[in-house]
């Protein structure tokens, strides 16, 4: 979805970071960006391109104005000055929700005076009412967006507070006008820091009116989801707020950052703090102050455990291809320190003891997209190895209903980013009903991880490509470990059977590498079948989940018609579409009932459809136009086959010249419902 980057430094350019804090100096030895906002913002926007966008812009704070540069299209097309002295500013990549992609609808948005500029992620649900109110009061709007109500509301709030203030004073945090005495020490001399309200240098039209208090008043009027970053002319500060949309602070030396994702600034600092729903923060080059429910609070500092280089292409043509090839390493990270093969058990560092799991009658997996497919795979494993009833719900459709007892239900929210709006909503519904919740996520400090009763991290490392690859494999692997944890503590899984599954998990990275070594073969297959009418992906049991995921990958990045479904469903309608121009890709492995699936292969073959089989089933060879061998790995073989489907999708999309890392109309992290 949309991306936010904000930056503010001291005038000495203190945003350079030493090695202890993650690097950040340019190759020429100077501090990154030289303390000037523009190059840092532009680099940050480029780092956020993977989220998907259709327009971009920046706002740079000047003494008596905010300079806004924005337009439809890609970041490299932005008309920007060669240099700008501003040390404070914000940037944004927009993914359209309200209004078409146009220059006017691009962020940042400003008020009538041009002194206030705002960038926003999320959806303001009551913007129609607010806009009508503002227009009736004389405010002029220049866009179709919901966001534009925010700078106009701030303009009105700041003006009212400026008018209420007397003798250069300001409105205090309770909304009352404060005189000059409120900005002075006991002897009447001005002070630089009045409690938590640090006085910013001011020369804009709103004087020293407190922007934090004004933002608090404005966001109280907003309904919906938002992450907002505010700049005001003449003010060396950023004020930000979040509700149901992610926002993270980057903490530097003499410079600080705010962004929707750490990838925006990780080359400068790996020290971060995650804002929580309801937080409003004031960010300067020296400090970050956070308010919540009218009180000043501290947010925990964390260190990002990966380097900036992990979010770069590293010589690959696309992030997606790089991340496909990173899967063996990612899977080793997921497994590291968690397996005890001798005892046939796992150590997941989650609070799910035997007495809790003994009472669980049902596990509900809630997720969207690729994470939903990982849930479908995990359902089979949990039911087979942990002897527990499992349902998998599309998060946007979820309700905690059906007479379920919350004390007997464990709800597992599977979300790569930990910020997927529909998944968070489902998890909150379950928690409200009284059910125990567990987040399975890749992101430490994410909303899902903080709000769930516990979190299981998949440890896949950063994934930049919009189409999920290594995170799917890591999700299934983490959920396989969870299966062992649940099965052993419920007494449903013997140590011998658990040890066998864990042994296969140990072998998973190597098996994936074997398939990656066959990439040239898959590239040739993709070239042969690149110009077809449609593609059908079929499998049974675990293979069905992989078929759905394989079809999704091809749709996402190649923009071709692809369907995935259980192979037994072919004869219930889809067979009417099968021709010699519709390749069928099938999973014929252990855990995917290959004997029955082979019968369906014969059906499509008799209608002239070419069949590409990912197979460990010897009897299938004579019925396949193309056979991609899958190493023996028990119930994890379909997961290995999925890597082959990823490569097939990638090479088809590449042959067609698609924008693989930034597919049209799609976003990496879907933070609106």
Describe this structure in words.
The protein is an alpha/beta fold and 673 residues long. It folds into three domains: 3-312, Aminohydrolase, N-terminal nucleophile (Ntn) domain (Glutamine Phosphoribosylpyrophosphate, subunit 1, domain 1); 313-517, Rossmann fold; 519-673, Glucose-6-phosphate isomerase like protein, domain 1 (Rossmann fold, 3-Layer(aba) Sandwich), CATH 3.40.50. Helices cover 30% and strands 21% of the residues. Strands 3-2-4-1-12-11-13-17 form an eight-stranded antiparallel β-sheet, covered by helices on one side. Strands 5-6-9-10-14-15-16 form a seven-stranded antiparallel β-sheet. Residues 13-34 and 166-203 have low confidence and may be disordered.
Q: What about the largest sheet? A: 8 strands, antiparallel
How far the N terminus sits from the C terminus, by CA atoms, comes to: 11 Å
Percent of sequence in beta strands: 15-25%
Evaluate the radius of gyration.
Answer: 27 Å
Structural class: alpha/beta
State the CATH superfamily name of the largest domain. Answer: Aminohydrolase, N-terminal nucleophile (Ntn) domain
Q: How many distinct folded domains?
A: 3
Q: Which parts are unreliable, with pLDDT below 50 for 5 consecutive residues or more?
A: 13-34, 166-203
Helix count from the secondary structure assignment: 16
């Amino acid at each position: 979805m949309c991306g936010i980057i904000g930056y503010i430094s001291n005038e000495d350019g203190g945003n350079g970071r030493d090695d202890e804090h993650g690097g950040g100096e340019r190759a020429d030895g100077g501090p990154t960006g030289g303390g000037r906002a523009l190059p840092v913002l532009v680099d940050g926007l480029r780092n956020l391109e993977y989220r998907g966008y259709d327009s971009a812009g920046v706002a740079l704070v000047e003494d008596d104005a905010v300079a806004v540069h924005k337009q439809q299209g890609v970041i490299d097309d932005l008309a920007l000055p060669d240099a700008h002295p501003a040390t404070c500013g914000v940037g944004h990549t927009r993914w359209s929700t309200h209004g078409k992609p146009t220059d006017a609808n691009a962020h940042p948005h400003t008020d009538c005076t041009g002194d206030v500029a705002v960038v926003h992620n999320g959806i303001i649900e009551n913007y129609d009412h607010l806009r009508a109110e503002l227009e009736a009061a004389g405010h002029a709007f220049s866009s179709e967006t919901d966001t534009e109500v925010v700078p106009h509301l701030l303009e009105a709030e700041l003006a009212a507070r400026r008018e209420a203030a007397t003798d250069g004073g300001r409105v205090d945090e309770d909304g009352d006008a404060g005189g000059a005495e409120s900005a002075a020490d006991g002897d009447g001399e001005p002070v630089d820091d009045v409690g938590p309200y640090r006085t910013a240098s001011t020369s804009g039209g709103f004087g020293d009116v407190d922007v934090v208090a004004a933002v608090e008043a404005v966001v109280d009027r907003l309904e919906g989801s938002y992450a907002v970053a505010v700049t005001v002319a003449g003010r060396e500060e950023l004020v930000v707020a979040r509700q149901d949309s992610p926002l993270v602070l980057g903490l530097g030396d003499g410079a600080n950052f705010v962004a929707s994702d750490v990838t925006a600034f990780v080359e400068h600092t790996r020290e971060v703090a995650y804002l929580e729903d309801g937080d409003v923060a004031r960010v300067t080059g020296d400090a970050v102050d956070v308010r919540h429910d009218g009180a000043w609070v501290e947010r925990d500092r964390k260190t990002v455990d990966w380097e900036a280089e992990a979010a770069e292409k590293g010589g690959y043509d696309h992030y997606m291809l790089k991340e496909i090839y990173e899967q063996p390493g990612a899977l080793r990270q997921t497994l590291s320190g968690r397996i005890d093969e001798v005892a046939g058990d796992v150590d997941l560092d989650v609070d799910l003891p035997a007495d809790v799991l003994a009472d669980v009658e049902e596990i509900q997996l809630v997720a969207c997209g690729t994470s939903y497919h990982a849930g479908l795979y995990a359902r089979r494993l949990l039911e087979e190895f942990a002897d527990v009833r499992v349902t998998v719900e599309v998060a946007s459709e979820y309700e905690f209903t059906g007479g379920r007892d919350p004390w007997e239900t464990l709800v597992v929210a599977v979300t790569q980013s930990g910020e997927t709006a529909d998944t968070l909503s489902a998890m909150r519904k379950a928690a409200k009903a009284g059910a125990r919740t567990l987040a399975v996520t890749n992101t430490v400090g994410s909303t899902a991880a903080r709000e769930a009763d516990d979190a299981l991290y998949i440890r896949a490392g950063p994934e930049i490509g919009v189409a999920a690859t290594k995170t799917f494999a890591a999700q299934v692997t983490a959920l396989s470990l969870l299966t062992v944890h649940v099965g052993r503590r419920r007494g449903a899984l013997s140590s011998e059977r658990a040890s066998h599954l864990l042994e296969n998990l140990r072998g998973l990275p190597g098996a994936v590498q074997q398939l990656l070594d066959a990439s040239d073969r898959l590239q040739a297959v993709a070239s042969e079948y690149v110009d077809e009418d449609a593609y059908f992906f079929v499998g049974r049991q675990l293979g069905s989940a992989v078929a759905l995921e394989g079809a999704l990958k091809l749709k996402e990045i190649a923009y071709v018609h692809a369907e995935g479904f259980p192979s037994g469903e072919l004869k219930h309608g889809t067979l009417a579409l099968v021709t010699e121009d519709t390749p069928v890709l099938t999973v014929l492995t252990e855990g995917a009932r290959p004997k029955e699936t082979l019968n369906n292969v014969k059906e499509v073959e008799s209608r002239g459809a070419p069949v590409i089989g990912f197979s460990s089933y010897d009897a299938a060879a004579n019925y396949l136009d193309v056979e991609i061998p899958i190493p023996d790995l028990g119930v994890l073989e379909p997961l290995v086959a999925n890597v082959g489907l990823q490569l097939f999708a990638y090479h088809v999309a590449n042959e067609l010249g698609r924008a693989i890392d930034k597919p049209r109309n799609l976003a990496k992290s879907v933070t609106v419902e």
